[in-house]
């Protein structure tokens, strides 16, 4: 199972993993993103337009491409963890983890006994790992799945060392927008105020100190490269609902002709007139 979890394999090599955020529903949409050859796709059921059934279908579609499906659940609730993992997710991303106790409850919900309290019985996960045996899934899931906690509140920042130290927590993912809001320094123009930048480095340092990987929510390839160079391990490169209008907007601007295009056309026209004189 661990061999099939592309996300976990990359994390263990200490190389950066690059992924995408899916907020729009549809398995064709999932497969189209997967064709970019990202390591993982996070199916967002917190802020995305994706319901439980659509999440199930997206997880299966992503896994079939060899990309790791992750699911961001809406809250730190055991039944939401169960639904995501029972669909075959290779890991869960969980928002609003405030304290070490919050993280302990999450880890317990992710693990089968004796390490945790997760119930057993879903037939959907084995195909997502390319295995036929439900028994094999039961025996290997605790080690093969990835638990990602989001650090996005002032309280979580204060507790970051204790959270990072917990067994079963694999990645601490920074949500810079919520964290900026919580610290009184909202991200309005894409720049991070010094207190937010310091907090980001504090979280990365806690991960390094406890042998965990740090994650960062990026919205562009250039930003993703920056955080990869800074030692972050889980990095998004784009979010579908933002990337689609951006791409089409750029294509439309090029089609209509911007200032440079207009200047080139004007120069060509002037040259043609001179040639005709």
Automatic annotation (TrEMBL):
Keywords: Lyase, Metal-binding. Belongs to the HpcH/HpaI aldolase family. Gene3D superfamilies: Phosphoenolpyruvate-binding domains. Pfam families: HpcH_HpaI. This is HpcH/HpaI aldolase/citrate lyase domain-containing protein. It comes from the Eukaryota. GO terms for cellular component: cytoplasm. The keyword Lyase applies. Residues 31-241 form the HpcH/HpaI aldolase/citrate lyase domain. The keyword Metal-binding applies. Signal peptide: none annotated. InterPro entries: Aldolase/citrate-lyase_domain, HpcH-HpaI_aldolase, Pyrv/PenolPyrv_kinase-like_dom, Pyrv_kinase-like_dom_sf. GO terms for molecular function: aldehyde-lyase activity; metal ion binding.
């Amino acid at each position: 199972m661990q061999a099939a979890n592309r996300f976990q394999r990359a994390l263990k090599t200490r190389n950066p993993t690059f992924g995408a955020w899916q907020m729009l529903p549809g398995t064709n949409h999932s497969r189209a993103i997967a064709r970019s050859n990202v390591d993982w796709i996070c199916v967002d059921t917190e802020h995305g337009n994706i319901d439980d059934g659509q999440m199930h279908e997206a997880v299966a579609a992503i896994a079939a491409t060899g990309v790791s499906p992750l699911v961001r659940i809406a809250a730190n609730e055991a039944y939401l963890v169960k639904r995501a993992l029972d669909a075959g997710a290779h890991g869960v991303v969980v928002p609003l983890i405030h304290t070490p106790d919050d993280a302990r409850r999450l880890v317990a919900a992710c693990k089968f006994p004796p390490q945790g309290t997760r119930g057993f019985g879903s037939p959907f996960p084995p195909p997502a790992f390319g295995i036929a045996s439900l028994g094999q899934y039961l025996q290997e899931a605790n080690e093969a799945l990835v638990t990602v906690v989001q650090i996005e509140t002032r309280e979580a920042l204060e507790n970051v060392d204790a959270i990072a130290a917990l067994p079963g927590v694999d990645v601490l993912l920074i949500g810079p927008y919520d964290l900026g809001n919580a610290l009184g320094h909202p991200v309005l123009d894409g720049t991070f105020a010094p207190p937010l930048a310091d907090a980001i480095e504090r979280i990365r340092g806690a991960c390094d100190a406890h042998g965990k990987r740090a994650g960062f929510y990026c919205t562009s390839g250039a930003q993703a490269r920056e955080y990869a160079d800074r030692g972050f391990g889980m990095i998004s490169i784009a979010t579908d609902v933002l990337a689609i209008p951006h791409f089409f907007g750029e294509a439309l601007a090029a089609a209509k002709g911007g200032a440079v295009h207009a200047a080139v056309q004007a120069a060509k026209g002037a040259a043609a007139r001179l040639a005709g004189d």
